[in-house]
Amino acid sequence: MTSNTERKPSSPLCSAFSLEAGERPAGSAPSWKRLLAFELPRPWQFDVAETPHFPAAVRDALARADDAGVEVRAQCVSPDAEYSAEGRAAVMLFSRPDGPFTTFQREEYLVPTEELGGLVSALLLDRDGLGRFAGFRRDMDGVRDILVCTHGSRDKCCASFGFPVYDELRYRYAPRLRGRLRVWQVSHLGGHRLAPNLIDMPEGRNWVRVGPEQLDALALRSRPPSDLQPYYRGLVGLDSPFEMVAEGVALMREGWGLAGRPLRVEAAPYANGSEGATVRVESSTPSGEPVAYSVTVERSGTVEYIKCLGRESEGVEEEDQYAVKRVAKAL
After folding, report:
1. What's the pLDDT tens digit per position in 27-43?
2. At what angle do helices 14-21 and 156-168 cross, to 10 degrees?
3. Residue 89, class by beta-carbon neighbours within 10 Å (0-12 exposed, 13-18 middle, 19+ buried)?
4. FRET partner for 227 with CA separation of 20 to 30 A, picked from 51, 101, 211, 252?
5. Which residues contact 287 (CB under 8 A, 6 or more apart)?
6. pLDDT tens digit string along 93-105?
7. pLDDT tens for residues 308-319?
8. What are phi and psi of 133, to 5 degrees?
9. From residue 287, how far is each of 248, 257, 290 by CA, in Å?
10. Residues of the chain with CATH 3.30.360
């Protein structure tokens, strides 16, 4: 690939390097069918699954799910005494529904730690076996979970930039929302060069590079999402960068009223498949009025990025960039 970057920025920190290089995060969010998050005490290894106290039964269940073709992203979260209990672990499974997308469907349990493997196996492979965990299930409808990557053993930018944002959200903003917001420290989300990196569940919105001045708009939604446009990677429930960029256009234009509304996104790729697509985004206002946009998105080149935490020797890599070429409000 040919990079748009003419000169390598000087910073050894991957996040500063990315910012100096002018990397635009839109369209770079991961695409997930399911997100499994469970409490695991620190410290964590570089690969969290290689942590010595990572439950072997959970590792086995995840391997069997992979063999069975069950797509799931597994994440660990640091235990939080307010959200959990001694000798137990919170387990959350967020699943993308079929059809129009509103939010990920949530299933949450607070189980004895020795039951983690059995619950994960039942959630992913043996739904009929969930009955024995019914007494541990808890209803968290109406609660947002913001997962902030602070996985410093993976990349130092995640700890350096992620932890202060976690701390602000956890101890300043969560109390103000009186149980409607929980904030977790989470293992590597992907994209540490964009740290701080966080995902707002169950909507699945991936925000990056946020600082204290953005948190009112993000946590309280006290300002329009257009104020956060440079910090939005996309919706992790969509299948392609083109769809993510187009959904972002609709969100920024329509405002927070579009969040959590039924969403249908359909992309018509260019003939060459990878260079662009015309995307139709359909949703509705809080009052039920239909909203639709036609957005043409094209790949606009690449930008260089590096790795840090002593991994600079691995060299410079490239990330695709995307540009909006046309927007029309459709009928």
Report:
1. 999 999 999 999 999 99
2. 90
3. buried
4. 101
5. none
6. 999 999 888 899 9
7. 755 555 667 899
8. -105, 5
9. 21, 9, 9
10. 34-136
